[in-house]
Write a structure and sequence with these properties.
Number of strands: 20
GO molecular function: hydrolase activity, acting on carbon-nitrogen (but not peptide) bonds
Strand content: 15-25%
Shape: globular
Protein name: Amidohydrolase-related domain-containing protein
CATH superfamily of the largest domain: Metal-dependent hydrolases
Number of domains: 2
Number of helices: 11
Largest sheet: 11 strands, mixed
Pfam families: Amidohydro_1
InterPro entries: Amidohydro-rel, Metal-dep_hydrolase_composite, Metal_Hydrolase, Metallo-dep_Hydrolase
């Protein structure tokens, strides 16, 4: 796969570490990193464009291509492989340079991306999703966690509460006991892994925080006390706002039967409040799409606009998508356009302080990862191609 090295990007409005923008005459790239000087490669004309760091999606499902598991299972292995390759490519072409797969991707897929045989973002994997079938028995939890770790999991994914199947107004119980949370955290930590927890709310959120998990996913009914507790413990909140609007559409067209519209409407309203609560209490927020279909892969940046519409400023939403996401994934040299950081960036043709920008795939003019331009497939030409100088 031929890759074009970038020497510099000239004349763009460049995002700083705080999410603000200022014109910069020249952003230099050398050996895959931003630098004071540049080495060989093309010079891109960024005039009239905005340059942001590459985005980190901290909750996605890149090996899934259908919303329902039964539909995924009906596909042949060859079809699943082809669709997964497309999902990976679409995701990085859409501006995502790093992704935490929250269930489905395995070590073989990760290795193919690392080797360059598949185009995709830098990938961290959880392999399995451990839920109610695992919970309720400490030995079973130990065995499931160790099995995932043995197969290369860098993250242990616990599904601690019900989801859209729970009735409106229902009190959410926890599938896992306090001790089971701690067992998962301790086993993961002993092998250099961490834990992410799907939890809509209730006691599961508090127990997960107490156990020392790294992030809470969704957190729709997050309380002020839990937000303060999570902030004090230096956790990260990954809300995944956009997916529930997508689910609402599936309910309306009958694709998800048996889920009352009142439940998803309750969720959407509560979710915005949860983001506001997290922000008010200083809880770190990172971007996660929870995308899992062919229509969604590659549109991950819509979640930036969703974070803005939930009350974050443009600067806060952009840093959630970049610097905070990189920090959650342990990538200390990512998420910022500054000397010695990874030369990952997205050139946008529309104003990134406007949430509507992220609802238009054509706003992504170019993507650079590790100092090289991400190749575009035929038919996916950007809205505006930066001129090479």
């Amino acid at each position: 796969m031929t890759r074009t090295s970038v020497a510099s990007i000239r004349g763009a409005l460049v995002m700083d570490a705080g999410g603000g923008f200022a014109p910069v005459d020249r952003v230099n790239v050398s050996t895959g990193r931003f630098s004071r000087t540049s080495t060989g490669g093309v010079d891109l004309d960024g005039s009239g464009l905005w340059l942001i760091p590459g985005v980190y999606d901290c909750h996605t499902h890149l090996s899934w291509n259908d919303f329902h598991r039964a539909d995924r299972d009906r596909r042949s292995p060859a079809e699943r492989r082809a669709l997964t390759a497309r999902a990976l490519g679409d995701t990085v072409r859409g501006g995502v340079v790093g992704a935490r797969d929250a269930g489905g991707a395995d070590r073989a897929l990760q290795a193919d991306v690392e080797a360059g045989s598949l185009l995709g973002p830098r990938l961290q994997i959880s392999v399995d999703m451990l839920g109610p079938e695992t919970a309720g028995n400490e030995d079973r939890v130990r065995a499931a966690v160790e099995s995932a770790l043995d197969r290369g999991a860098q993250w242990i994914k616990l599904i601690a509460t019900e989801s859209i199947g729970s009735p409106a107004g229902a009190e959410l119980g926890s599938h896992f006991s306090d001790r089971e949370f701690r067992i998962a955290v301790d086993l993961a930590a002993a092998r250099g892994a961490r834990v992410l927890v799907h939890a809509w709310g209730g006691r599961a959120v508090s127990a997960a925080i107490d156990a020392g998990v790294a992030s809470i996913e969704h957190g729709i009914f997050l309380t002020p006390a839990q937000a303060a507790q999570a902030a004090a413990a230096q956790l990260t909140f990954v809300p995944t706002l956009s997916i529930y609007h997508f689910v609402r559409g599936l309910i309306l067209d009958g694709t998800v039967p048996g889920v009352p519209l009142v439940r998803i409407d309750e969720v959407i309203i509560a979710h915005r409040l949860a983001v506001a609560t997290a922000h008010e209490h200083g809880l770190a927020i990172a971007l996660g799409s929870d995308f899992a279909t062919t229509l969604q892969h590659g549109t991950n940046l819509t979640e930036i606009g969703a974070l803005m519409r939930a009350g974050l400023s443009s600067a806060e939403a952009l840093t959630a998508a970049t610097r905070t996401g990189a920090a959650l994934l342990g990538i200390r040299d990512g998420g910022v356009i500054a000397d010695d950081y990874l030369a990952d960036a997205v050139l946008l043709s529309s104003d990134p302080t406007d949430p509507a920008t992220f609802e238009s795939p054509g706003s992504v003019a170019a993507v650079m990862m590790g100092g090289t331009l991400v190749p575009l497939e035929p038919g996916t030409s950007p809205h505006r191609t930066p001129q090479q100088q």
